[in-house]
Amino acid sequence: MTNASSRIPLDNATLSLFQNAKISIVISVIYMIVTAINLLGNGLSMWLLLFRTSPKTPSIIFMLNLTLTDLALGSALPFQIYYQLKGYHWTLGSNMCSFMTLVFYTNMYCSVLTMMAIGIDRYLGIVRPMMFRQTQKRKSIAVISCFLMWGVVLGVLYPLMTTDLTYDIPELKIITCFDVLKKSMLPSDFAWALFLSGLVFILFFFPFCVTTFCYVSVIRKLAKDSKTVQKKRAIRLAIIVLLVFVICFAPNNILLLIHSILRLFYDKSVYMAYKLSLCFSCLNSCLDPFIYYFASKDFRQKLRAIIRMPSLSSGDSMKMEQKETLFSGQ
């Protein structure tokens, strides 16, 4: 994002990015790979979660929510690829630009909040098993939580829905989509500070802290007993979730904050680094099916059956699977 009024000249870093064909091709190739993996992995996940996984526990409901946002991103990325290959020239109109931008950022922040919800559910199931034991009540809470997540994300992103996000750059003969964001989108620097704080702290930093606490607590709880199968699986799940935060979400949100502060107050830019980090943030949609594999016993069994992998059959594994089904919401 480069904050500019309607005709303030763009900074050299942004203009350089728009003229860098190699970077545009690299970003396009990454998006192509992500799109293919996203649609294949999440398409299979959606089918398994909807039609092959029962009962629909809270964790499964959260996974369905996450898969839905991932598939929306996978469906939107081809438009971004087309835009990149056209040399940052958007030809589909301002409404479509706003819609695709909203899909892009909704995926990121709904994914963050949903992974936090999955972590909380596992924390309650393993560390606090006596809380929310009534299955129906937990299902209702999960469904309401999903609606609340969407409400919070769309509330914070509301300025993107009410602004023309296209920007005409006559000197390059291109019209960008969300790559140049007018400072006039919000009425004051204070409003910009609130907007950025909502993105970085409410939708990223706070969920990251809660998720880390939940998984660390789960690992500490399981480390006290000898149930190594569940412990190893919980550790793998925690590692994958935290890697998604650290690799996919953290660089983008940190660079967003740095870049916006530099543009608002110092007329400087780290836009190329931010653009690349935004590209890599999409990798979360490729890693989410691995989260489902380690978080859901039923999903794991159905996937193993499809790809003809042998199921675990030791006595200890069966006992651990039974306990996981009872307490962790699958």
From TrEMBL:
InterPro entries: GPCR_Rhodpsn (IPR000276), GPCR_Rhodpsn_7TM (IPR017452). It is found in: Cell membrane. GO terms for cellular component: plasma membrane. It is a multi-pass membrane protein. Keywords: Cell membrane, G-protein coupled receptor, Glycoprotein, Membrane, Receptor, Transducer, Transmembrane, Transmembrane helix. The chain crosses the membrane at residues 25-50, 62-82, 102-120, 141-161, 190-216, 237-262, 274-295. The keyword RNA-binding does not apply. It comes from the Eukaryota. Residues 41-292 form the G-protein coupled receptors family 1 profile domain. GO terms for biological process: phospholipase C-activating G protein-coupled receptor signaling pathway; positive regulation of Rho protein signal transduction. PANTHER family: G-PROTEIN COUPLED RECEPTOR (PTHR24232), P2Y PURINOCEPTOR 8 (PTHR24232:SF25). Belongs to the G-protein coupled receptor 1 family. This is G-protein coupled receptors family 1 profile domain-containing protein.
